[in-house]
Design a protein that fits this description.
The chain contains 5 helices and no strands. It is mainly α and about 130 residues long. The protein folds into 2 domains: about 80 residues, lambda repressor-like DNA-binding domains (434 Repressor (Amino-terminal Domain), Orthogonal Bundle); about 40 residues.
Length: about 130
C-alpha cells in the first residue's frame, strides 16, 4: 500500500494522486529551469494540458506519462513519489558515482578471481 500523510483510512483518492503527480511534474520541470512551454514542447503536448496536469485538474494518458518522464529524463514512477521522497540532483549524482565505483571494484575483483582460477586450471592440467 502506498503510504502518505494525506491518505484517508489507508486509501489514497484520485485527486491526491493527481495533486502529487502534478506537483512533481512542476518540481522536475523547475529543476531544469524550464518553462511550461519548454516542457510542453519537449513532451509534445499542449501547454494548456500541461498546466492542467500541474494543477491536478487533468490526468494524462499512459503514453503522455512516458513522454513527460522521458522529456524530464526520469523514470515514470518518480512522478508519483511524495516530495520528501524525491531525490535531489546531488544525491542522485553521488549515488550514481557510488554505484559506478562499486561496479568497477566488483569487476576488478571478479577479473582477478577468474584469472586466478584460469591460471590454476592451466597449472593443474598443464595447459598453455
Amino acid at each position: 500500500m502506498y503510504l502518505t500523510n494525506n491518505y484517508k483510512g489507508g486509501i489514497m483518492i484520485g485527486t491526491e494522486v493527481r495533486a502529487i503527480f502534478g506537483k512533481n511534474v512542476k518540481i522536475y520541470r523547475n529543476r531544469r529551469n524550464w518553462s511550461q512551454a519548454d516542457l510542453a514542447e519537449y513532451a509534445n503536448i499542449s501547454i494548456n494540458f500541461l498546466g492542467d496536469i500541474e494543477r491536478g485538474k487533468k490526468w494524462p494518458h499512459p503514453d503522455t506519462l512516458t513522454k513527460l518522464a522521458n522529456a524530464l529524463e526520469i523514470k515514470v514512477f518518480e512522478l508519483f513519489l511524495e516530495e520528501d521522497l524525491i531525490p535531489n540532483p546531488e544525491t542522485k549524482t553521488l549515488m550514481n558515482r557510488f554505484i559506478n565505483d562499486f561496479n568497477l571494484s566488483i569487476n576488478k575483483s571478479l577479473s582477478i578471481s577468474v584469472k586466478q582460477s584460469i591460471d590454476y586450471i592451466r597449472k593443474q592440467y598443464k595447459l598453455k
